[in-house]
Write a structure and sequence with these properties.
Helix content: over 70%
Largest sheet: none
Order of helices and strands: HHHHHH
Number of strands: 0
Mean pLDDT: 93
Distance between the termini: 55 Å
């Protein structure tokens, strides 16, 4: 199964690939791209706040946020193809010979190892979305009033991405043999899910308050 260069496709082409009969790109890749779009909106609001005299007291912080959103955006975009790669490896493991005890042992070990890798990647990307939500919450407070509604959109995309990526973690954990990894992943899953929802709600609440102040 080949991985196409999805980063060079236009939006219509990528959507067509996503809707097609191939399993990649799939939910994990779509979630990573959603996170990329979400953090891009946070970056846009930061850019629209940059060098504006009205927000002179937060310029250094805005520059720092911009630098980090750029890093997160690129990491999440790269996650689209990385997700496909780990899926292909897990899929290949399921097709390994399974006739003899030796083959069964090798297959089980490969499934465990590749499933762990397939859980590690979306967990890493979910962390990026969580950090993106933290940055969105800050931009909701200090960002230009001309664009803070876009922070709300970005936070919504980031939360959706976070939930999707955590589901990818969950579906890969049952075959992982490293019990400590599974335990830690489950704990982090719960924390990221709860905190992510709280951050997204905080963004909307802050923006609503700021919007009311200018009416």
């Amino acid at each position: 199964m080949d991985i196409l260069n999805w980063q060079e496709m236009n939006l219509a082409q990528f959507a067509e690939q996503l809707a097609g009969p191939n399993p990649t790109p799939g939910g994990g890749g779509a979630a990573a791209y959603s996170g990329c779009l979400g953090v891009s909106l946070v970056a846009m609001v930061a850019n629209l706040t940059l060098d504006k005299p009205k927000y002179a007291d937060v310029q250094d912080e805005v520059r720092q946020i911009l630098q980090r959103t750029d890093e997160l955006r690129l990491a999440l975009l790269a996650g689209v193809e990385k997700d496909a790669a780990v899926f292909i490896r897990v899929s290949a493991a399921y097709k390994m010979p399974n006739d003899t005890p030796e083959e069964q042992a090798v297959k089980a070990a490969e499934l465990a190892s590749r499933s762990q890798a397939a859980a590690e990647l979306p967990l890493e990307l979910a962390r990026a979305c969580h950090e993106g939500l933290q940055l969105a919450a800050r931009m909701a407070k200090i960002g230009s009033m001309l664009a803070i509604s876009d922070v709300v959109c970005g936070a919504g995309l980031l939360l959706s991405a976070l939930k999707g990526l955590l589901m990818m973690v969950s579906v890969n954990l049952p075959l992982v043999e490293d019990e400590q990894f599974v335990k830690n992943a489950q704990l982090e899953y719960s924390r990221l899910l709860v905190e992510g929802a709280e951050l997204e709600a905080r963004v909307s609440a802050v923006v609503n308050v700021r919007a009311e102040q200018i009416l």
